[in-house]
Amino acid sequence: xxxxxxxxxxxxxxxxxxxxxxxxxxxxxxxxxxxxxxxxxxxxxxxxxxxxxxxxxxxxxxxxxxxxxxxxxxxxxxxxxxxxxxxxxxxxxxxxxxxxxxxxxxxxxxxxxxxxxx
Length: 118
Hints:
Helix content: 10-25%
Order of helices and strands: EHEEEEHEEE
GO molecular function, one term: 2 iron, 2 sulfur cluster binding
GO cellular component, one term: cytosol
Structural class: alpha/beta
Pfam families: Fe-S_biosyn (PF01521)
Domain Core: 5-104
Organism: Beijerinckia indica subsp. indica (strain ATCC 9039 / DSM 1715 / NCIMB 8712)
Shape: globular
Radius of gyration: 14 Å
Number of strands: 8
Protein backbone atom coordinates (compact mmCIF):
# COMPACT_ATOMS: atom_id res chain seq x y z
CA UNK A 1 0.00 0.00 0.00
CA UNK A 2 2.01 2.96 -1.29
CA UNK A 3 3.73 4.47 1.78
CA UNK A 4 2.05 1.95 4.07
CA UNK A 5 4.28 -1.10 4.50
CA UNK A 6 1.57 -3.80 4.59
CA UNK A 7 1.72 -7.06 2.65
CA UNK A 8 -1.65 -8.25 1.33
CA UNK A 9 -1.88 -11.94 0.48
CA UNK A 10 -3.84 -13.05 -2.61
CA UNK A 11 -6.56 -14.50 -0.33
CA UNK A 12 -6.97 -11.17 1.52
CA UNK A 13 -6.97 -9.26 -1.78
CA UNK A 14 -9.77 -11.48 -3.11
CA UNK A 15 -11.79 -11.10 0.13
CA UNK A 16 -11.48 -7.29 0.20
CA UNK A 17 -12.43 -7.05 -3.49
CA UNK A 18 -15.50 -9.20 -2.86
CA UNK A 19 -16.54 -7.04 0.11
CA UNK A 20 -16.12 -3.82 -1.86
CA UNK A 21 -18.02 -5.23 -4.84
CA UNK A 22 -21.02 -6.35 -2.77
CA UNK A 23 -21.12 -3.67 -0.05
CA UNK A 24 -19.65 -0.57 -1.68
CA UNK A 25 -20.03 1.93 -4.47
CA UNK A 26 -17.55 2.99 -7.15
CA UNK A 27 -15.33 5.02 -4.78
CA UNK A 28 -15.78 2.93 -1.64
CA UNK A 29 -12.91 1.66 0.42
CA UNK A 30 -12.16 -0.48 3.44
CA UNK A 31 -11.91 1.52 6.67
CA UNK A 32 -9.25 -0.17 8.79
CA UNK A 33 -8.92 0.92 12.41
CA UNK A 34 -6.23 -0.63 14.61
CA UNK A 35 -5.46 0.05 18.29
CA UNK A 36 -3.08 -1.43 20.89
CA UNK A 37 -4.52 -4.46 22.73
CA UNK A 38 -5.51 -8.07 22.15
CA UNK A 39 -3.39 -11.24 22.08
CA UNK A 40 -1.25 -10.02 19.19
CA UNK A 41 -0.76 -6.58 20.69
CA UNK A 42 -3.44 -5.17 18.38
CA UNK A 43 -7.20 -5.01 18.19
CA UNK A 44 -8.94 -3.91 15.02
CA UNK A 45 -12.16 -3.30 13.17
CA UNK A 46 -12.99 -2.82 9.50
CA UNK A 47 -15.96 -1.82 7.39
CA UNK A 48 -16.75 -0.88 3.80
CA UNK A 49 -17.49 2.86 3.64
CA UNK A 50 -18.14 5.37 0.85
CA UNK A 51 -15.42 7.87 1.77
CA UNK A 52 -12.70 8.51 4.35
CA UNK A 53 -13.21 10.75 7.36
CA UNK A 54 -11.20 13.96 7.71
CA UNK A 55 -8.70 12.14 9.97
CA UNK A 56 -8.08 9.24 7.55
CA UNK A 57 -5.75 8.99 4.58
CA UNK A 58 -6.42 6.94 1.47
CA UNK A 59 -3.95 4.16 0.64
CA UNK A 60 -4.36 2.34 -2.66
CA UNK A 61 -2.89 -0.96 -3.77
CA UNK A 62 -3.80 -3.00 -6.84
CA UNK A 63 -6.97 -0.91 -7.26
CA UNK A 64 -8.12 -1.41 -3.64
CA UNK A 65 -8.74 1.64 -1.46
CA UNK A 66 -8.04 1.57 2.28
CA UNK A 67 -9.02 4.40 4.64
CA UNK A 68 -6.63 4.46 7.59
CA UNK A 69 -6.12 6.89 10.48
CA UNK A 70 -2.61 7.99 11.58
CA UNK A 71 -2.42 5.69 14.65
CA UNK A 72 -3.50 2.65 12.63
CA UNK A 73 -0.96 3.46 9.93
CA UNK A 74 1.87 3.34 12.47
CA UNK A 75 0.62 0.08 14.00
CA UNK A 76 0.17 -1.60 10.61
CA UNK A 77 3.75 -1.03 9.41
CA UNK A 78 5.38 -4.36 8.50
CA UNK A 79 2.18 -6.37 9.00
CA UNK A 80 0.87 -9.06 6.61
CA UNK A 81 -2.88 -9.09 5.97
CA UNK A 82 -4.31 -12.51 5.13
CA UNK A 83 -7.77 -14.06 4.83
CA UNK A 84 -8.26 -17.34 6.65
CA UNK A 85 -11.31 -19.60 6.49
CA UNK A 86 -11.81 -22.52 8.85
CA UNK A 87 -14.85 -24.73 9.52
CA UNK A 88 -15.82 -22.46 12.44
CA UNK A 89 -14.84 -18.95 11.30
CA UNK A 90 -13.64 -16.78 8.45
CA UNK A 91 -12.04 -13.38 8.43
CA UNK A 92 -8.99 -11.25 7.95
CA UNK A 93 -5.93 -12.19 9.94
CA UNK A 94 -3.01 -9.86 10.53
CA UNK A 95 0.45 -11.29 11.21
CA UNK A 96 2.64 -8.77 13.02
CA UNK A 97 6.29 -9.85 13.33
CA UNK A 98 6.92 -6.99 15.79
CA UNK A 99 4.24 -8.05 18.28
CA UNK A 100 4.88 -10.09 21.38
CA UNK A 101 2.09 -12.51 22.24
CA UNK A 102 0.39 -11.87 25.55
CA UNK A 103 -1.75 -15.00 25.48
CA UNK A 104 0.81 -17.71 26.12
CA UNK A 105 1.36 -18.70 22.49
CA UNK A 106 4.88 -19.54 21.39
CA UNK A 107 4.13 -19.03 17.71
CA UNK A 108 4.17 -15.71 15.87
CA UNK A 109 1.25 -13.64 17.08
CA UNK A 110 -1.57 -12.70 14.74
CA UNK A 111 -4.76 -10.70 14.89
CA UNK A 112 -8.08 -12.23 13.92
CA UNK A 113 -10.25 -9.60 12.31
CA UNK A 114 -13.90 -10.07 11.46
CA UNK A 115 -16.22 -7.65 9.69
CA UNK A 116 -17.39 -5.00 12.15
CA UNK A 117 -19.75 -2.57 10.51
CA UNK A 118 -20.37 0.80 12.14
